[in-house]
Amino acid sequence: MRYGKLAPWLFITPTVLGLVFFRIGPIIAAFLASFTSWNVFAPPQWIGASNYVELFNSGTFWMILRNTLVFSLIYVLGVMVCGLFLAILVNNRIRAITFFRGLYYLPVITSTVAIGVVWSWILSPRFGVLPNVLADLGVHNLPSFLGDSRYALLTLVVVYIWKMSGYHMILFLAGLQNIPEEYYEAAKIDGATRWQSLRHITLPLLSSTTFFIGIIALIQSLQSFDITMAMTEGGPNYASATLSFFTYINAFVHFRMGYASAMSFVLLVIVGIITFINFYARKYWVETVD
Amino acid sequence: MKRNLVIALLATLLVASLSAFAMAEQVTLRYFMWDPEFQQMEAELIRGFEAENPNIKVEMTALDPTNFWPRLAAMAAAGELPDVFSMSTGYIDTWARDGLLLNIQHLVDRDLDLDNYFYNVFAEDRFPNKETSDMYAIPYAWVGSVLFYNQDMFDAAGLEYPNDDWTWDDFQKAALALTIQSNPNRAPEQYGFWWYGRYSHVEPWVYANGGRILNENKTRIAIDDKAKEALQFLADLTNVHGVSMAHRDMAGMRQQDLFPLQQAAMWVDGSWMVDHVRTVAGDSFRWGIANVPKGPSLEPGEERSYYWPDSVGIAATTKHEDEAWAFIQYLIGANRPVETYMPGKVPIYRDIAYSEEWLQKDQQPGNMELILALGDTPVRTTFNMGWSEWRGYASTGGAGMNGELDAVTNGQQTVEEAIEKITRDGNAVLERYYPEP
In sequence order, what are the beta bridge partners of B347? Predict the structure, then answer.
């Protein structure tokens, strides 16, 4: 059977159409919307760069941008360290290891709302398990982890890390099992300690996995929304809000579509810059097993 | 044979034209409401309406508020609004401004006997001026602000129950006496009162002192001295007297659970909480409702109650104005079963509100007529365009004026500092909705 010149185009048409209508189209529409004042019910009005001007003059926006960067930094490092630690822990052939792998993975598949509610109950200053147990042990005046603007964001990051570490554990585990056993045997014969093996064999040979996890975790952190909504609703006074949450609030609570679109484009630029730096820096630190 | 055929043909034609005529007269109204819990009863109400109006059919969709507004907004954008839909006080000004709601003033004037309704409540559905402008929706129910109090705790402390002669000083003394803290290292096990920055906790005190949060036109934040006095009074209850919990300490709890779980002896909130208190507290303690105590700076003639309606509106795009209006009259009138009103939500139709079934004297609090009296006093509210944004509401409940007052209860700022930020940030929002002429 012979294919004409048209055939390949016909085959990719469905994908291209999907891409145009459901990805590129909305992106262009959102970009144009970011130059309008649009509350959804009434037709949009062109206001030039006013949304961007308002955004960069807003103290709340800068605070939320800072929150987002702090959140991302701690989250990415947190899931990497915890994920790797768990992966090394379960990269064993002891009995019931699959049980522990499943156990650590459990938070990933647990309902986000349930997690939010349970953690709120654990941390609630008045009825929470943690403050009450500690109070019985003589530790009083614990801060309000969710209600105090100084701690709310950090508390949220910890819960997000707790939920997602299992996912990154699986990725690291795949990477670990890809490292040939001989390297460790050779190192052992040469008298390397466990730390030296980790530092000079495991980490370099895991670097491609680490790179991948870095990108995935960064995207996850910038999309953080569900636990925030369930636990603090971005409060108190936006102290635990991140950009994606604030975009949602402006778009679907205040119905300020233009302003929210401008915000999402700022987020897009940030993701773009970080991803670019990451890819550029990749050649300096990522090694492969081969 | 031929004659029979002609008769048969004529008969067929007659039937066909009659049914075509009937079809042409049949109108289908689309109705969106925001309370799926009452869907069943609402459907029964609709069946009653359809029986009385055989040419009108009503298709109802019930969505909870979280889904209701995004869906309605999308329909508004597409010019596909349902003929009749539930309308919130928080959105009415924006929707009326954007031409989405039908001006129903001429219909109200033509068809309603206003003595049958809590007419003062209609004010909140007027736009742009709440006293003189036309109505763009009509209430079917309303709620007012009351002081909930735990009678068992009052008895245990040997205190008289709150009454209409109570001053703020009396209130504060009672709150102090009702606060119990046996271990100084731990939080009080019982608070005398509970408040935070929420609109239904704060505004009733401001109005009880004759104060204003907004200017006369409701276009800018202009917190006056009487309002400041009220805010300072509330702040001192938390920070100086320790009779109310700091906002940060209620994290992980629902604010509406503190009173029914007997963590606080008194609480000011909307009367619809009657249902919640009954559900959560059951018969575990005796409780009552009273009026919010009048403030020291309230002058005669300044009395304003804080109440607000749940309304229904007609889409400006409807092709069936008369049918939609007939349906709305049925929804807000004498036919509506009292069971479709959550306890504490007052029917707009007086006879239903004053009925024994609504007053439920055999159930706590036993003095629901106190809520009804509010509806006959003039109203004041803060609802305007951008309200949820500057005031902080629902999923932004931790922001806006709410957030600033919460920070006061947390001891992070003074009332003066909070007022400065509320005014600055709130007016930045309001300038977008009400630009300087």
Answer: B141
Delimit the domains of chain A by residue range. 59-285
What is the largest distance, in Å, between two alpha-carbon atoms of chain B? 107
Q: Are residues A145 and B394, on separate chains, in Cβ contact within 8 Å?
A: no
- Residues 115 through 134 of chain A touching chain B, CB cutoff 8 Å: 120-121, 123-128
Domain A59-285 has CATH 3.40.190.10: no
Query: A147 touching B, CB under 8 A?
Result: yes
Inform me whether the C-beta atom of residue A269 falls under 8 Å from chain B C-beta atoms. Answer: no
**Predicted pLDDT at B310:** 93
CA B406 to chain centre: 22
Distance separating alpha carbons of residues B46 and B208, to the nearest angstrom: 40
CA atoms of B61 and B82, how far apart (whole Å): 10
Bigger pLDDT: B38 vs A110: A110
Which DSSP helix (H) or strand (E) runs through B290?
strand B287-290
Structure tokens belonging to residue B30: 């689309």
Q: Predicted confidence band at B394 (pLDDT cuts at 50, 70, 90)?
A: confident
Q: Is the peptide bond preceding residue A14 cis, with omega within 30 degrees of 0?
A: no
Contact B249 A144 (CB under 8 A): yes
- Which residues contact residue B92 at a Cβ distance below 8 angstroms, ignoring those fewer than 6 apart? B101, B124, B125, B127, B136, B137, B311, B313, B383
Q: What percent of chain B has pLDDT over 90?
A: 75
Q: Is the pLDDT of residue B71 over 60?
A: yes
The complex's ipTM works out to 0.85
Amino acid at residue number B246: A
Asked if A234 and B398 come within 8 Å (Cβ–Cβ), the reply is yes
**B70 contacts in A (CB within 8 Å)?**
252
Question: Distance of CA B388 to CAs A254, B246, B275, Å?
Answer: 7, 23, 24
CATH numbers and ranges of domains, chain B: 2-142+308-374 (3.40.190.10), 144-306+381-433 (3.40.190.10)
Is a pLDDT exceeding 90 seen at residue A223? no
- How far is the CA of B272 from the CAs of A40, A242, B310, in angstroms? 31, 33, 11
Distance CA B137, CA B116 (A): 17
B70 contact A CB<8A: yes
Q: Which residue bears the tokens 């940060």? A: B248
Write out residues 235-254 of B within 8 Å (CB-CB) of A: 245-253
Element (H, E) at B325: helix B321-332
Which phi and psi angles does B33 have, rounded to 5°?
-130, 160
Locate the chain A residue with the closest alpha carbon to B90. Answer: A254
Query: CA A38: distance to chain centroid?
Result: 30
Give the per-residue SS3 of chain A: CCCCCHHHHHHHHHHHHHHHHHHHHHHHHHHHHCCEECCCCCCCEECCCHHHHHHHHCHHHHHHHHHHHHHHHHHHHHHHHHHHHHHHHHCCCCCCHHHHHHHHHHHHHCCHHHHHHHHHHHHCCCCCHHHHHHHHCCCCCCCCCCCCCCCHHHHHHHHHHHHHHHHHHHHHHHHHHCCCHHHHHHHHHCCCCHHHHHHHHHHHHCHHHHHHHHHHHHHHHHCCCHHHHHHCCCCCCCCCCCHHHHHHHHHHHCCCHHHHHHHHHHHHHHHHHHHHHHHHHHHHHCCCCC
B413 touches chain A (CB under 8 A): no
* Chain B residues 155-184 with CB within 8 Å of chain A: none
What value does the mean pLDDT take over residues B112-134? Answer: 92
To the nearest 10°, report the CA torsion of B274, B279, B283, B284.
Answer: -100
pLDDT at B404 over 60: yes
Kindly tell me if the per-residue pLDDT of B24 is higher than 60: no
State the pLDDT at residue A1.
60
